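Example 333, ligand adenosine-5'-triphosphate.
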Amino acid sequence: MIKLKLLEIRNLKVYFNTEEGIVKALEDVNLEIDKGEILGLVGETGCGKSVTVLTVLRLLSNASTISGQVLFEGQDLLKLSEKEMLKIRGKEITMIFQEPMTSLNPVFTVGQQLMDVIQLHMNLDKKRALERAIEVLKLVKLPDPDYIVNKYPHELSGGMRQRVMIAMAISCEPKLIIADEPTTALDVTIQAQILGILKHLKEQLGVSILIITHNLGVVAQICDRVAVMYSGYVIETGTVAEIFQHAVHPYTRGLLKAIPPIEEKVERLNVIPGNVPNLITPPSGCRFHPRCERYKDGVCNAQAPSLRQLTETHTYMCYNPYLPEGVVEEVNV
Ligand SMILES: Nc1ncnc2c1ncn2[C@@H]1O[C@H](COP(=O)(O)OP(=O)(O)OP(=O)(O)O)[C@@H](O)[C@H]1O
Ligand SMILES: [Mg+2]
């Protein structure tokens, strides 16, 4: 029997009509998340990370084209009615944003906001909803939850507010939490605490987490697998060990080389030359080819590479990858 993945994104394409032309934001995105795993989604600004997760939650209102499949426990979310989607969004799949102050309502206490969400999705009376609110505040390790429930968002620190957001995200026992840059606005110690909490929740509750980040350090710290995006494609995926030790795509290697070393002093940081491409007139073939050190004329600029598989967990899209010696590439069928 084939084991169902929790989430499978297949050949997702998303375009936007704008005054300047059609923005080809996602061209061919393929992603999978298993039950109880943390997947890191990385890539430079504008590569389509947020558009991918907003499509999963069906929160894009102005896309002119959305095609492909977003299978959640085998059910295609792109085919659900808005009413059916309401049962998934906020209950089965929840989201944590970068800046909690924009997601929390300043005029209600933390407790009221948590209870609203809990009562909406869990069919509990007020007393049980309050108990659940306190319980989830404990799960995110907020000190003195009985006191915190009566506080307004502005009375809490940034790190505490982000914990409240995580508490809200887990309050209805979701199967998947999507976190879009959840620690970028926080200082490094608080960042480490929040990541520790997410990891702990995965272990304790078995929830799956899709975490979007610019920071490969975050990936190394908490993820099981990584998906690297470039200009509307997922160009490489693998376990953390596969990506950090044996990345095959020149773009992934460039990202890894750009991490500043901790020990040595360096004159200049490595950067990937060139800029992220314009999505209205993207480069032909592999969209990375104008910046690529492994570029082969007539091949890389002709057609977009198909998805290839190196191991059960390691996939990539590249005509001229850094394959380990003796490995013959396999092409997906
Ligand atoms: N609603 C929209 N209308 C038109 N274009 C959009 C819309 N939303 C996103 N885009 C475009 O789609 C591309 C992908 O954007 P997205 O927000 O997914 O990038 P990102 O990878 O999340 O970047 P960042 O790391 O900066 O958050 C960008 O070029 C962006 O300008
Ligand atoms: Mg984004």
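Summary: The longest helix spans residues 188-205.
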